[in-house]
Prior knowledge:
The structure is a single chain. This protein has three domains: 20-213, 3-Layer(aba) Sandwich (Rossmann fold); 222-237 and 246-254, no CATH class; 303-517, Alpha/Beta hydrolase fold, catalytic domain (Rossmann fold), CATH 3.40.50. The protein is 28% helix and 19% strand. By secondary structure, it is an alpha/beta fold. The chain is globular, with a radius of gyration of 28 Å. It has a seven-stranded mixed β-sheet with strand order 14-15-17-16-18-19-20, sandwiched between helices. It is built from 16 helices and 20 strands. One of its GO terms (molecular function) is triacylglycerol lipase activity. Keywords: Hydrolase. This is Lipase. Its EC number is 3.1.1.3.
Amino acid sequence: xxxxxxxxxxxxxxxxxxxxxxxxxxxxxxxxxxxxxxxxxxxxxxxxxxxxxxxxxxxxxxxxxxxxxxxxxxxxxxxxxxxxxxxxxxxxxxxxxxxxxxxxxxxxxxxxxxxxxxxxxxxxxxxxxxxxxxxxxxxxxxxxxxxxxxxxxxxxxxxxxxxxxxxxxxxxxxxxxxxxxxxxxxxxxxxxxxxxxxxxxxxxxxxxxxxxxxxxxxxxxxxxxxxxxxxxxxxxxxxxxxxxxxxxxxxxxxxxxxxxxxxxxxxxxxxxxxxxxxxxxxxxxxxxxxxxxxxxxxxxxxxxxxxxxxxxxxxxxxxxxxxxxxxxxxxxxxxxxxxxxxxxxxxxxxxxxxxxxxxxxxxxxxxxxxxxxxxxxxxxxxxxxxxxxxxxxxxxxxxxxxxxxxxxxxxxxxxxxxxxxxxxxxxxxxxxxxxxxxxxxxxxxxxxxxxxxxxxxxxxxxxxxxxxxxxxxxxxxxxxxxxxxxxxxxxxxxxxxxxxxxxxxxxxxxxxxxxxxx
Length: 518
């Protein structure tokens, strides 16, 4: 017998407090291959899950059942469980809900013990994620209810997850844990190991299915791993004399397909109506704003300092790699948000990563948003920040000859307009930029056939068309008056001096509507 395993027969106090057990399930010829009890010490040799599994000997202690369990300390989860060769593993643990409720009812305001629960559960998630396994809860969502301590535990775990580096930062507890109420149905969807049994005590689930992800299933790769995989598979193609670096999704699929990870946006997207009552010119601006942006991870490996400053009357955040002093390159960053939304919070981690990558400074501009402050007020804010930095570059330790500007979506529209006007800007980075509000123009006619969709996936067409015909919305909210959409400070693609444009990087997604107009 493995020295880390102990015969279950030694458990004391085997009284009948589990009346709902389906005894036949426990007397199978296979028994239980791995019974992992996640809990606290009840005697010097045994670790059990807080009493609910405390007296199983009466039903487990038979000749036909080979019952073993691992000792799991509160500060460690045995990774050996996840390193087995079998593709699916079953962790037999106490129902998390009942565990937390039991603890909370006993502990009341005892924060130290509540934090121990948090620590144990977070460690379980961490090890599963590290080994590319997903935890499927078979009970109601964890940590739900009105109990004050339940809410404390839930909030603390979510706070820890957001700060972590191994999980995708936009996820919260419910999104990491897949809730499956019908296990028998779920078993048909996976290559389930029939030798592993599951058990019920009355209506309390005592098991979790942990599904091993196949090597090509990268849904739960960290953002760092995804970026690494995309870079490794990158390749150059040439279209009409332009070199394009293509970074395909890191899955071995043939042809053109939508990234399977997009399912997370469907499953966890915010409701279209957030309850924000703000309406302008008949448009639900409050709902639009509340649905913008996603939480994201800080992928920096070094310490990036951030300071909040008012630059020429405009609020900004300044990011700089710790230890850098002078002759630094600088990027002015302008966030997206359809000219009406977005925030510096959403773009904070990208700005930090850029600052680390260029070994310099990134200045993120909190420009005025329509409809409260319509065109051209936001554009003027960006102009003012760039002008001030050029004139006062020494104050920030910036090399005047190394100033660039980067924007995303609507922010890229503002960025390229400013770059076209300013001869001192040496570089512009445009992330899925809005370069025109005129779909049919002398340069091209937008066409859905520009996008490869050999499998005719409806979702792809929906994505692409979601931003079409936005001229009316722009007029209602951004310009708030009739203006020629071909103006250079609205549709920069009509700038007459584009041949003199700065060194430019344009980044677009394959199925983004904006790809077809930039």
